[in-house]
Amino acid sequence: MPPEYRAIFAEWSPPVFLTTALLLSAIIYTRGWFLIRQTRPLLFPTWRLAAFNLGLATIWLSIASPMDGFADALLSAHMIEHLLLMSFVPPLLLLGNPQVPLLRGLPHVATVTILAPFLRMKPLRTLGHFLTTPVVAWLAMNLIFLGWHIPAAYDFALEHEHWHEFEHICFLVSSILFWWPLIRPWPTNARYPGWYMLPYLVGADIVNTALSAFLAFCDRPVYGYYLQQPNLFHIDPLSDQRAGAVIMWVIGSLIFLIPAVFITMRLLQQDSRNRA
Asked: What is the mean pLDDT of residues 235-253?
């Protein structure tokens, strides 16, 4: 193994709290999935169980595995980390229809005495509905995405571990909000997204493309953090920045445009059936 790889693996240790929380979430969801599958097998096929647990595994891979060490050394690896958190984890978790299995998987006492009164609070339900409306969800995800990529904020997060963790939470939560109106996990109203979801996705792709293009065509490194740290991999910071921008541009665009094409085909088929 090259010495730079050995250095990163030597400094890495699995974060106990996050690893434990993800394992407990997988156990609780799996238990709830088996319980609810007894009465709603069509709503909870095996692929939903696989999707949710794959989403949890992707969280661990992106921010709890040695990849996080590579992300501190390379901007391109950091962009992959962000891409996993924002574009892969949220759809996987939501495709698992997680609300009811997570509640069913908890001990009955905890669900009835602690969570049930909390979840019945009208202000909380109103807030949840507000945050998952398309306009609010779109703005939340894209403003947070752009805000944390401002050079001062980006460098600050990398220089302060707890703020870096907060950045990851912001990315994950805002992206779950963004994908919620598209996937609408049960028992959310299952009405299929309309045509307004196309500008919703294309608009997010434009934001991603604008930032990626700026990083790709900028003639200098934007983030000073990578200039101040030891260059373990001996990669030119500007080349690393352009590689990260290309990854974010190409894969990020596909993540938005493939669902847009799928929705367009479904809506055209629906219109054809209605006319027939």
From this structure: 93
